[in-house]
Design a protein that fits this description.
Layout lengths: L2 H7 L1 H12 L11 H18 L2 E6 L6 E6 L7 E7 L19 E3 L2 E3 L7 H16 L6 E7 L9 H7 L8 E4 L11 E6 L1 E10 L5 E2 L10 H10 L22 H8 L5 H8 L12 H6 L3 E9 L9 E2 L2 E10 L5 H14 L6 E10 L2 E2 L5 H14 L4 E4 L6 H9 L3 E3 L15 E3 H21 L2
Helix pairs in contact: 2-4, 3-4, 4-13, 5-12, 11-13
This protein binds ligand BES and manganese (II) ion (MN) (2 copies).
Length: 455
Amino acid sequence: MSTLSYIESNRERFLEELFQLLRIPSISADSAFAGDVRKCAESVAEFLTKAGAENVVLEETAGYPIVYGEKIIDPSLPTVLVYGHYDVQPSVPNELWHTPPFEPTIKDGKIYARGACDDKGQFFMHVKAFETMMQTQSLTCNVKFMIEGEEEVGSSNLGTYCRNNKEKLKADVILISDTGILANDIPSIDVGLRGLSYVEVEVTGPNIDLHSGVYGGAVANPINVLCTMIASLHDENRHITIPGFYDDVLEVSVEDRDSLARIPFDLEEYKKHLDIDDVLGEKGFSTIERTGIRPTLDVNGIWGGYIGEGAKTVLPSKAFAKISMRLVPNQSSDKITELFQKHFESIAPASVKVKVSPHHGGEPVLTPTNSVPFKAASLAMLDTFGVEPIATRGGGSIPIVALFEKELQTKTVLMGFGLDTDAIHSPNEHYGVFNYFKGIETIPRFFHHFAELNK
Ligand code: BES
Ligand code: MN
Ligand code: MN
């Protein structure tokens, strides 16, 4: 039986099995879901075994387990290491979902659920593609699976695992589906990802919440101060004002900027989709450049004081914010965190105390376009979409990609199938049924071309 007819005749089951995974609320950030995250790992292991993988194990770490499995058909053939993550972002605010986040529902050809696209729907394509190749005797490479449960919280235990398992994880390429394409008729491959530096800040004024009339005007209000400090982090051109912030930013060549400018992009549609009258970003750069090749600084959350019903006249003792900085090649996450900390402390008035606590980070990456893995992915997408994919830059971060290169000296190819409009990390996350099956069809083509090109 051909791979295509195998996929066609197992369509309903391939969807139902994905739904089983999507029903497990594997939220890694919230310890209330610890049992579910573990349950999800067990379920992934079971699916891998059923698909034909051998030596399937839950590799224990200091955090959530990594699911490993493999199929070595011939040591002389090339080996593909598939990476993905079974953990998901929190679903809150739940009231904004049109259907419950952990009750997958198909509407207008899209699967709605937390994790539908990021990344359960995408890594599960590999499990089903693998099953397909096994059942149709068409597996042309050795395959190793490494599906982790801490990607959404910074993959902090994965580095150690890779360092301690170099031989076991040895591969000729790392294949990841955790990014997107430009449109369903415009395939693309991300050749860059941004890095990340994530910090939490705490500003303390008086040692206790005060009456805002009795003390207001005389004692620093930490929320007012925090807002002033945050506002000063960008200038009128939306440049970041932290001294040294841009020092290591790699200048992008005129040719590379030209090719970014040729990427099909409709600003009007972009604005319409987000219901905004205008975009806002760094002066001198296009929207595609602002998310692809430029670093950023964003407040992800800010809180403090009274936010309950009605009004309480209070001058709060503390204010907090969570701040992320997206980094581009050659910036370093640790260095940027340090620069932020020094600068943020230096701009605080004497009337408050400031504490900066670093969270996780990750390094930016650029992957080559003249490599055998890129060529294989390109040919695979040409086979199934009928057009050659465009090289793009992803704005998000997958910290493990730089780590893989450092610890395993192995290059990654980012063959994702999501869309920017899939609402990952947002309410009503979804993934196209088209995209799910397009992925399942394209992956065996990658294996085919990768084996051929390695001959
Ligand atoms: N799959 C995303 C990253 C992504 C999405 C890259 C779209 C390119 C295009 C991943 O799961 C993710 O969300 N990563 C986090 C980083 C992590 C350290 C929390 C991110 O980018 O915020
Ligand atoms: Mn992801
Ligand atoms: Mn994510």
